[in-house]
Amino acid sequence: MTFDTLGLAPALLRALADNGYATPTPIQQQAIPLVLSGRDVLGGAQTGTGKTAAFALPVLNRLSKETPPAGPRKPRALVLVPTRELAVQVADSFKTYGRHLKLNVTTLFGGVGMQPQVDQLRRGVDVLVACPGRLIDHLDRGSVKLDAVQVLVLDEADRMLDMGFLPAIKRILNRLPKQRQSLLFSATFEPRIKALALEFLDNPQEVQVAAQNTIAQTIAHRAHPVDGPKKRALLVEILSRRHTEQVLVFGKTKHGCNRLAEQLEESGLPAVAIHGNKSQAARQKALNEFKSGKARILVATDVAARGLDIPDLPLVINHDLPMVAEDYIHRIGRTGRNGASGEAISLVAQEEAHLLRQIQKLLGRDIAMEHVQGFEPTRAIRTDAAPFKQQPRGPRPPSRNRRPHGKPRDASAHAHAHTGQKPAQRDGQRNGRPGGERRGTRG
Ligand code: AMP
């Protein structure tokens, strides 16, 4: 199959040819005709398989067919994403695919000044790519109106509908026309979130490429059991052995990532870090350096887990396992993208055994445990036999290590569980206002 058969405008086909795209990926083959037909779509496909173009191309196609009203244009397509970096990346994709169209693509996210965004909105926008928190700031100020939106896209939809973002998403939905097309895409859907997603959609068509919650076949992943205090030495050992390769290292907390990056530097392994405590300029700089290959090691919190497309990244290491099992799929999905092969290694301490079990339960299979000589744990780490225990309902457990995956009770408790901070202390959160605050990803 080629893109010509999908019914896309010649200007888009030209842009695809410029980009060297010869054939649509499976999610593109299935989703593009449906989106072009005007249907609501719930789309699931593995990480790195071309979901962005699966919604961006038909959305651009739709807008290109209309003559926009005279005067400053109000957004006709709204794309909501969970992180600022993803907003930049998704907007870049729209710009790339829409380069032969006269459409304006604008981003709104926090951590940068409001006024340039207000000016941009005043000049007119066709496609708005936004993080929920900053979009609400603009809605409250009256600097953006969403009454002309024809298409809504929730990228990383399960994250956008979890309790951290849901109140903000509901406020935004209330400002959108009832008559609209809605598109929800993600690599993971928890059943509870999926049921919620279906409430937002009108007679949706579901497109699911590969079984739900699965990892791209091109990613080889395994775990190394190790005592917690020896994790850093093991990480240094792996990074030194693989000294020519680019590596994305995931850590648990902002502070932990900072320390880890510093300690790697001290061990002669220069690393940059990205997390919610850094200024937006520093975050984007670190990511750009890593994407361009200038930086070899990036240490990140889950702010970098979703959607980021890092070309040819060979290796992801989980220094700490994620608290939420779905995040494992997203984290390791930064490698093995677009058919390339990739590798993911998780360092698993005794106290993380339950997290590994939750991940295995989500994946429906075991992850190979391989001992590294000199780093064998003092006590065997059991990840197979013990059945997954559902946490009892009731007050949130005090330790963030004990939260069952994907079961947030409210946004602030959720945030608390992830950062170990009180809700009001978390970066970017004001007066407990909802909207993307989770794990410092608030836009
Ligand atoms: P995504 O999952 O949307 O982040 O896309 C993953 C990577 O695949 C990105 O680098 C895209 O530029 C690339 N890509 C998406 N669709 C195609 C295609 N049809 N042909 C070649 N590359 C593609």
Count helical runs: 15
CATH superfamily of the largest domain: P-loop containing nucleotide triphosphate hydrolases
Instruction: Please report which band the strand proportion falls in: under 5%, 5-15%, 15-25%, 25-35%, 35-45% or over 45%.
Output: 5-15%
Helix/strand-derived category reads alpha/beta
* Form type: globular
Taking all Cα atoms into account, the compactness measure Rg is: 21 Å
Q: Given this structure, which CATH class of the largest domain is correct?
A: Alpha Beta
Largest sheet: 7 strands, parallel
Low-confidence stretches: 388-442
Q: How many strands in all?
A: 14
Percent of residues in helices: 25-40%
Compose a concise summary of this entry.
The protein is of the alpha/beta class and 443 residues long. The chain has 15 helices and 14 strands.
Provide a descriptive summary of the structure in words:
With 443 residues, the protein is an alpha/beta fold. The protein folds into two domains: 3-208, P-loop containing nucleotide triphosphate hydrolases (Rossmann fold, 3-Layer(aba) Sandwich); 219-369, Rossmann fold (3-Layer(aba) Sandwich), CATH 3.40.50.300. The chain has 15 helices and 14 strands. It has helices at residues 10-18, 26-36, 51-64, 84-97, 115-123, 132-141, 157-160, 166-174, 191-200, 231-241, 254-266, 280-291, 325-332, 353-363, 411-419; strands spanning 41-44, 77-80, 105-108, 127-130, 151-155, 181-186, 205-208, 219-225, 247-250, 271-274, 297-300, 315-318, 342-348, 368-369. The strands form two sheets. Strands 3-4-2-5-6-1-7 form a seven-stranded parallel sheet, sandwiched between helices. The chain has a seven-stranded parallel sheet with strand order 10-11-9-12-13-8-14, sandwiched between helices. Helix 5 (115-123) links the parallel strand 3 (105-108) and strand 4 (127-130). Helix 2 runs parallel beside helix 3 (51-64), helix 3 crosses helix 4 and helix 6 crosses helix 8 (166-174). Residues 21, 24-25, 28, 48-53, 309, 337-338 line the site of adenosine monophosphate. Adenosine monophosphate binds at residues 21, 24-25, 28, 48-53, 309, 337-338.
